[in-house]
Design a protein that fits this description.
344 residues, alpha/beta, Rossmann fold, Dihydrodipicolinate Reductase, domain 2, nine-stranded mixed β-sheet, globular
Length: 344
């Protein structure tokens, strides 16, 4: 079977990992990369000598030899580029957040529906041998009915991004849309059987008075219709990268932990433990965990969806719901009161 042909738009720190993942996937081919800066183009040529490098994403979209467009650009460009890629007749893998606004997400969804093309959102943690294994065990009934979920990240400050976009509120939206959006998605996924979350209460603050709306410390509580709830917390005022997920149910508990000196390390420390109400066992995850590994799994899954029609790991509706939860949490933190959620 012919490989799935990818065009990549964006070649920054994370975009280069996307290029690596596509190149490492046996049934994928990296045909073209669009990178705006000369420095990024030079790095792309050095790493991918047989791939065509262009400066304008419209030039990439004008090609007739692409099946999937992988979009890894700053948040404020997602809507424009994703809609253009879908309207060109290509399937799309779009990094999270889907867009910085609900309207932007809805416009991208509408473009996907009009085109009939697949729209995958980059929630690669769902593919994880660690974080994904938690969901598998919940579905298998390993802890009975889930009642509580806690997902927490302790890490060093964010990188500024190309041109400092990640510290520019007009371009990034807010920092809840950066990593906590993964945790909102995981919490909703882990507690699928509890129904859609219906309320969020959040608190946040910053260690820098010059950027009060970009919060270093953030915590939210997400309520579900059956009384289950999830706590999501992050600090960017710490060091290294340490993430934890804990889920308790009526018949047991799960504890997943991941640590690395950097978020994109190839040599992490991680574990998953299961308590069945009587004893604790170490769960074999079957291989390494971390976003650099999960990205390869995500590319493979997109290829399988394109060629074989297998379900996407996360679709446009998942992307929309995650943005809705994050924006409602932001309003809660700013107003000091809970916000009702209506995910549809």
């Amino acid at each position: 079977m012919d490989p799935v042909r990818f065009g990549l738009i964006g070649y920054g720190a994370w975009g280069s990992h996307h290029a690596r993942a596509i190149s490492e996937t046996s049934n994928a081919e990296l045909v073209c990369i669009a990178a705006r800066s000369e420095a990024a183009q030079s790095l792309a040529r050095e790493a991918h000598s047989t791939t065509e490098i262009v400066s304008d994403y419209q030039e990439l979209l004008s090609r007739d030899d692409l099946d999937v467009v992988d979009i890894v650009v700053p948040t404020h460009r997602h809507q424009e580029i994703a809609c253009a890629a879908l309207e060109s007749g290509r399937h799309v893998l779009l990094e999270k957040p889907m867009a910085a606004t609900v309207d932007g997400c809805q416009r991208i969804l509408a473009a996907s529906e009009r085109s009939g093309r697949l729209l995958a959102i980059g929630f690669e943690l769902r593919m994880s041998r660690l974080w994904g294994r938690v969901r598998e065990l919940i579905k298998q009934g390993a802890i009975g009915q889930p009642r509580y979920c806690m997902i927490e990240l302790w890490r060093r400050p964010y990188r500024p991004g190309a041109g400092g976009w990640r510290f520019d509120r007009d371009r990034v939206g807010n920092w809840i849309l950066e990593e906590p959006i993964h945790f909102f998605d995981l919490a909703r996924w882990y507690l699928t059987e509890s129904g859609e979350p219906n309320r969020v209460t959040a608190r946040a603050n910053s260690i820098d008075a010059d950027r009060p709306l970009l919060s270093d410390n953030f915590t939210a509580m997400l309520d579900f219709p059956d009384g289950a709830y999830a706590v999501i917390s992050q600090t960017l005022a710490a060091f290294e990268h340490h993430q934890t997920a804990k889920v308790t149910g009526t018949e047991g508990a799960l504890w997943a932990s991941w640590s690395g000196a950097m978020d994109r390390t190839f040599e992490p420390d991680f574990f998953l433990r299961h308590h069945d109400g009587e004893s604790v066992r170490q769960v074999d995850c079957g291989g390494p965990a971390g976003e650099v590994f999960e990205l390869v799994q995500q590319i493979q899954q997109v290829c399988d969806s394109v060629r074989n029609g297998t379900p996407l790991h996360a679709n446009g509706h998942d992307g929309l719901h995650a943005v809705q939860m994050c924006l409602s949490a932001e309003r809660s933190a700013e107003m000091g009161e809970s916000q009702t959620l209506s995910l549809a």
